[in-house]
Design a protein that fits this description.
Layout (H helix, E strand, L loop, with lengths): L8 H5 L1 H4 L6 H6 L1 E6 L2 H14 L3 E6 L4 H4 L2 H4 L4 E6 L16 E5 L3 H14 L3 E8 L3 E9 L25 H19 L9 E6 L10 E4 L3 H12 L5 E4 L23 H13 L4 E3 L14 E4 L4 H14 L2 E7 L3 E7 L8 H4 L2 H6 L3 H4 L15 H19 L7 E4 L7
Parallel strand pairs: 1-2, 1-4, 2-3, 4-5, 8-9, 8-11, 9-10, 11-12
Antiparallel strand pairs: 5-6, 6-7, 12-13, 13-14
């Protein structure tokens, strides 16, 4: 893929995804995409994640974008270039701004833009990734569908907004995190010539009542999952956060850990807490330490498991069961992930038991089981931003569902499947 045998800074930043079999970073780097939005958060979350992934050229038509997210994009990816036209997509001639784009991502919520863009896709043989957050009288959710030239499918009617013209609307920020991740996964597939989902990707749940904001929440692990869990909790109005992670920030983190720009060598938990406090007004704290059997979790009402090893997950499961703490456990690999909720009031299985982690750990060599968790440089597992973004959003939404009295079954995501959620 790259002719030089010496890794560049660009390659080092993206090292974890460059290791994925069949990955073609050149197509992302040289590709150009258009984005249409009318909800600044959904479009801004998509743009931020796309910049981290290494997509360098994005053209946007939207009435506004969220400055605190957009300011991060060129810091994460120095090669990133954004062209921003402030306004609504209401006339076919506006499509000229998307000249030379390989795909358009339609994140708007008005039917005029949806129909104009689908027609442009049909005429110009251009893929259209259609994504939105939506609400009905009883439900909220997010939908993603990829229109490809020649693909006449009945689900198109399902993803065209019933509201023809732009109008003010609320947008759930946690659903926007999930939706932006799903839309970016589809966009990556298009740019790389891989298969887009043949189905509508649809995550939905009942509408939520206001949740208590005074919960003390511990987040164990401040890596990619921890970054987006922290962002989702801040957006959702949970200010009392404590991040626990002993690791220093490394250059290979920067393709998916969006708050760690310009902070190489510093502690992950401390930087994440500082930047969430500065941008979102949270009162986050940091503990630069491992979670151990002797770690005191009594101050917390809820624990989020965002770690990358089974041994720590087992310790968390056992401690939360013993101390009757809510545990939201999440895990990812390249293209799969899961969220499992433990609620002591419901006497459900712990995540470690439900996922069979005891058997996995017991089958390992004793010396492997006793090793300390390792940094990303010494633990070179491939990883990308989308899966972490989607699973983190689902984890935060699972807490909100639990607090609302809704069911919280395990959620499994597979980017390789036809029906991915």
């Amino acid at each position: 893929m790259y002719s030089s045998s010496t890794p560049t800074i660009f390659e080092a930043r993206l090292d974890r995804q460059l290791q994925i079999a069949g990955w073609d970073q050149r197509r992302l780097r040289e590709g150009k995409i258009g984005v249409v939005g009318d909800a600044d958060r959904l479009a801004s979350l998509f743009i931020l994640a796309a910049a981290a992934l290494g997509i360098n050229q994005i053209v946007v038509i939207a009435p506004s974008l969220e400055a605190r997210l957009l300011e991060m994009a060129p810091k994460i990816n120095p090669g990133f270039h954004l062209t921003f036209l402030e306004g609504f997509y209401t006339h076919p001639r506006l499509g000229d701004i998307f000249h030379h784009c390989q795909a358009i991502v339609d994140l708007s919520r008005y039917g005029l833009a949806n129909k104009l863009l689908l027609e442009k896709g049909r005429q110009d043989h251009l893929p259209i990734v259609r994504g939105c957050c939506y609400e009905t009288e009883e439900e909220e959710g997010c939908k993603i569908f990829t229109y490809l030239p020649g693909r006449e499918w009945q689900a198109l009617a399902e993803v065209v907004s019933p509201l023809n013209l732009p109008r003010p609307h609320a947008e759930d920020p946690v659903l926007a995190i999930i939706g932006a991740g799903l839309a970016l996964g589809e966009t990556k597939n298009i740019l790389m010539g891989q298969q887009a989902s043949p189905e509508v990707l649809d995550y939905r749940r009942k509408k939520l009542a206001p949740a208590p904001s005074d919960l003390a929440i511990g987040v164990v692990g401040a890596g990619a999952l921890g970054n987006f869990v922290g962002l989702g909790l801040a957006y959702a109005g949970f200010p009392h956060l404590t991040f626990m992670d002993p690791d220093a920030i490394e250059i290979t983190n920067l393709n998916r850990q969006v708050f760690f720009y310009e902070a190489l060598g510093l502690n992950k938990a401390e930087i994440l807490a500082q930047r969430l406090n500065a941008a979102f007004g949270t009162r986050a704290q940091a503990a630069a330490a491992y979670l151990r059997s002797a770690t005191d979790i009594s101050p917390f009402d809820v624990i989020f498991d965002c770690v990358d090893n089974h041994e720590t997950r087992i310790v968390l499961s056992e401690k939360c069961a013993q101390e009757k703490k809510i545990l939201i456990s999440s895990g990812t690999n390249i293209d799969q992930g899961q969220v499992v909720v433990y609620d002591p009031k419901q006497n459900t299985q712990t995540p470690a038991a439900l996922l069979g982690l005891y058997g996995i750990v017991d089958r390992r060599h004793p010396e492997t089981r006793q090793q300390q968790p390792e940094s990303c440089i010494r633990q070179p597992d491939p990883a990308v931003i989308m899966t972490n973004q989607i699973i983190a959003g689902l984890a935060v939404d699972s807490l909100r569902r639990l607090l609302d009295g809704q069911e919280t079954p395990p959620i499994f995501y597979d980017a390789r499947g036809d029906y991915r959620l």
